[in-house]
Amino acid sequence: MMRINADGSHSRLDIDPTSATMLDALQAAVGGWIEVVQCGPNVLVLAEDGQPVTCGAGVLVVNEEGLLRGLPLNPFASHLAGQAIVGDAVYCDADTYARWPKE
Fold first, then answer.
1. Which one, of 12, 8, 9, 7, lies nearest residue 93 by Cα?
2. CA distances from 28 to 18, 43, 52, 82, 90 (A)
3. Hey, which residues does 44 pair with through a beta bridge?
């Protein structure tokens, strides 16, 4: 998973998708309650070395109350989602997302 900050910076997140603390870790990363937003296929993400990488479909985890809280626009996350995304976001590929507990 990769955290994509509204300021344009990014960092890798090592969160076990089957962990009981996954929800807490995602909420901490986006600063509040989470919402999952689908990303289309062949989205472009930045690898740890800063180089762009094309991958398949995935999801963004965003702050559910971001607009209400007046969080800043996140241009890169908005590009991935095809809609306006505010605040920090977490990108997760489809394979990892499929392992998330569905409650």
1. 12
2. 17, 24, 26, 24, 11
3. 54
Question: DSSP labels for 62-85?
Answer: EETTTTTTTPPB-HHHHHHHTS--
Residue 81 lies in a domain: yes
pLDDT, one tens digit for every residue, the chain (103 residues): 889 999 988 888 888 877 888 889 999 999 999 999 998 766 666 666 766 666 667 899 999 999 999 999 999 889 888 899 999 999 988 888 888 776 6
d(CA 86, CA 65): 9
pTM given for the model: 0.84
Residue 103 resides in a domain: no
> Residue 63 is part of which domain span?
2-98
* Total domain count, the chain: 1
